[in-house]
Amino acid sequence: MSSPIHHPERKYSYQDYLRWSDEERWELIDGVPYNITPSPSRKHQQILGELATEFTSYLRGKRCEAFIAPFDVRLFAEGKSDDQIMDVVQPDLFVICDPNKLDDKGCKGSPDLIIEILSPRTGKIDRWIKYKLYERAGVREYWIVEPVNSTIEVFTLNQNGRFELSGVYEDEDIIKVGIFDDLLIDLKVIFRE
Asked: Which spans are transmembrane here (predicted)?
């Protein structure tokens, strides 16, 4: 197992990605590798744990499922072989409502909802590169969690296939999850100290 030595002119595929070392975590966006290896902070993990608890509790016994990283999400992968897949991400948390998108390797297709929790190293990627990727992939709802300020920005896909900011929520707010009729998340619980 090796790690990619990035050459700007080279595009990598999921087939390449599968050969890289498990000691480091990588994502591919348009064939470009991004190293996401550093361990998340304690605050990041607390927020992720609370969000995962809310979603998994709500989804128990329902068709949709929630997953947390590390778990490969292969975007634009339907009908493609591993050497043709150029976008592989590991969102912090995501929800899949179509069980046909799940296989032994992870998810093949776009999740219905993706949540990314910012860290100093991933902020630009999550806010700009992944934002555009998830929009292009047709992700219905995208949350960007800012642990430092205890805020969540929620973007929903409009009829034109573009993300719209549907709200910015703070630790005293309650978010109604857009892809479900009756899931409310109290941010006092999510951002607890």
From this structure: none
